[in-house]
Amino acid sequence: MTAWIHSCELAWVETESAASAAALESALLNHWRPPINAK
């Protein structure tokens, strides 16, 4: 787990609203869901 966390990259994306932030998060998770969040 530690190796996976250390390999992560961080980005800050500003959005116009909370709704657009939620839509962006959903789209990113649909593209690739980290193993820790897999359903």
Any overview of this molecule?
The structure is a single chain. By secondary structure, the protein is mostly helical. It is built from two helices and no strands. The protein has helices at 2-6, 18-31. It is elongated. It starts with a helix and ends in an 8-residue tail after the last helix. The model has no long low-confidence stretch (mean pLDDT 84).
Sum this structure up briefly:
The chain is mainly alpha-helical and 39 residues long.
Task: Name a few traits of the molecule.
mainly alpha; single chain; elongated; 39 residues; 0% strand
Strand proportion, as a percent range, falls in under 5%
Number of strands: 0
Uncertain parts: none
Overall, the morphology is: elongated
Taking all Cα atoms into account, the compactness measure Rg is 12 Å
The structural class is: mainly alpha
Number of helices: 2
Determine the mean pLDDT.
84
How much helical structure, as a percent, in the residues?
40-55%
Sequence of secondary-structure elements: HH
How would a crystallographer describe the biggest sheet?
Answer: none
- Distance between the amino and carboxyl termini: 17 Å
